[in-house]
Design brief:
Layout (H helix, E strand, L loop, with lengths): L2 H12 L4 E2 L22 H15 L4 E5 H4 L7 H11 L2 E6 L18 H20 L4 E5 L3 E2 L7 H17 L6 E5 L9 E2 L4 H11 L3 E6 L9 H10 L3 E6 L16 H12 L2 H6 L1 E4 L8 H20 L3 H9 L3 H13 L3 H10 L6 H8 L1 H20 L1
Parallel strand pairs: 1-2, 2-3, 4-6, 6-8, 8-9, 9-10
Antiparallel strand pairs: 5-7
Helix pairs in contact: 1-11, 2-4, 2-11, 5-6, 6-7, 8-9, 9-11, 11-13, 11-15, 12-13
Bound molecules: alpha-D-psicofuranose and manganese (II) ion.
């Protein structure tokens, strides 16, 4: 086996990407939804879709769950999830509390000035920790939609204290191997201030919560032009990088397919991660995309294949040589050393790896040829069409 092949195999054997349950369901924009006949309408269907993606790519053994959407009965629903895990060979991944959809959260959840609403949010978080324990899930993944729309309408300062108090309590209930992932976002749904607006705020909050709290970087949650790989480097250095929500964006949190706009950025992020093998082993790679126009299944398989290809490119960078070139400030050679991996056409090697692992050589072609999408379209079409008419 050539050195390249070996590196590619090692990289692909190690890469695990978590799928978002919500990526299989009908989603839209704030202007409405275009419903797809194939979209999953139940948790059973989400597990089935995730299992199909895993069978095609060999890289997606876990499914992220959103508590309100996937376990509306809370802890009581965990039995059903355990059965689905067994049936489909896909495990529950990160557990995502929902602190943004209930009417009570209009002015925030754990940052709400109303102590009753704060309590309600905390109870939901604590139940989410219990759900994660029951499902043997390592990560409780927290995204707060909290914020405000107009200057002066909320005390940003007091809201920090309320948030810190809640996160400390949640942290106190985590099991020995569990983690609290803290996600940040600069705007939306709030348009003036977001209580966790950037990675620095998330890092400070994680530190205050406790040592099992780490930061989650959603690639779509940055201002245009921000150097995300530098953020990754800082979080790695602080030992507080918990994981990623991968997607791509052109303007804001667009939820576009990974690598569709700027594949070099994802490559640079992977390159920094691959420079820290210890952190790499614990970092959660999750997809957070909603495919509004593309077919759900096709888009998901395309995303995972893209992650595999770009990760492999980054694995080919000769990091030892790069470090030497950096030390000697041989700028062009250093840049070319990095870019060598990016420009290398890894696809033949990735195909070889797939065949060697008993996977389809071309997962997208296999999806199209396998009839799965046609079958779920006919099974789910009527149900999805019903929601079209009720939507209209
Ligand atoms: C918010 O934009 C976010 O990125 C959070 O991770 C949510 O959990 C997810 O999208 C789904 O709404
Ligand atoms: Mn996210």
């Amino acid at each position: 086996m050539s050195e390249h092949q070996e590196r590619v195999s090692r990289a692909l054997d190690s890469l695990r990407v978590e799928l978002p349950s919500w990526g299989f369901a009908n989603t839209g924009t704030r202007f409405g939804k275009y419903l797809q006949a194939e979209a999953a309408t139940t948790i059973e269907e989400k597990f089935a879709d995730a299992a199909e993606v895993h069978a095609l790519t060999g890289a997606t053994p876990t499914l992220a769950l959103h508590v309100m959407w996937d376990l509306p009965g809370g802890l009581r629903d965990t039995r059903k999830i355990l059965d689905l895990e067994e049936e489909h060979g896909v495990r529950a991944g990160s557990i995502n509390p929902n602190l943004f959809e209930r009417q009570e959260y209009k002015f925030g959840s754990v940052c709400n000035p109303d102590p009753g609403v704060r309590r309600m949010a905390l109870d939901h978080l604590l139940e989410s920790v219990e759900i994660a324990k029951a499902l043997r899930s390592r990560d409780v993944s927290l995204w707060l939609a909290d914020g405000s729309n107009y200057p002066g309408t909320q005390s940003m300062r007091r809201r920090i204290d309320w948030m810190a108090e809640a996160l400390r309590q949640v942290h106190g209930e985590l099991g020995a191997d569990q983690r609290l992932l803290v996600e940040y976002k600069p705007f939306e749904p709030a348009f003036y201030h977001t209580d966790l607006g950037d990675w620095g705020m998330a890092l400070l909050m994680a530190r205050q919560a406790g040592e099992k709290a780490v930061v989650l970087v959603d690639t779509g949650h940055h201002y245009a032009g921000q150097n995300i790989e530098q953020i990754v480097v800082w979080l790695l250095r602080e030992k507080r990088l918990g994981g990623f929500h991968f997607n791509d964006r052109r303007y804001a949190d667009d939820d576009l397919t990974l690598g569709s706009i700027d594949p070099y950025q994802i490559f640079r992020i992977f390159h920094e991660l691959l420079s820290d093998s210890e952190a790499l082993a614990t970092t959660a790679f999750m997809i957070d995309q909603s495919h509004n126009l593309k077919g759900k299944m096709e888009a998901m398989v395309q995303t995972v294949c893209t992650a595999q290809e770009i990760f492999t490119k980054a694995a080919l960078v000769d990091r030892e040589r790069l470090a030497a070139l950096q030390d000697e400030c041989r700028l062009v050679e250093a840049e070319e050393c990095l870019r060598q991996g990016f420009w290398f056409d890894v696809r033949p090697l990735v195909r070889e790896w797939r065949v060697a692992r008993g996977l389809p050589e071309d997962p997208l072609a296999a999806l199209r040829a396998g009839g799965y999408v046609e079958r779920i379209r006919s099974e789910r079409g009527a149900r999805n069409a019903q929601s079209v008419s009720s939507y209209a």
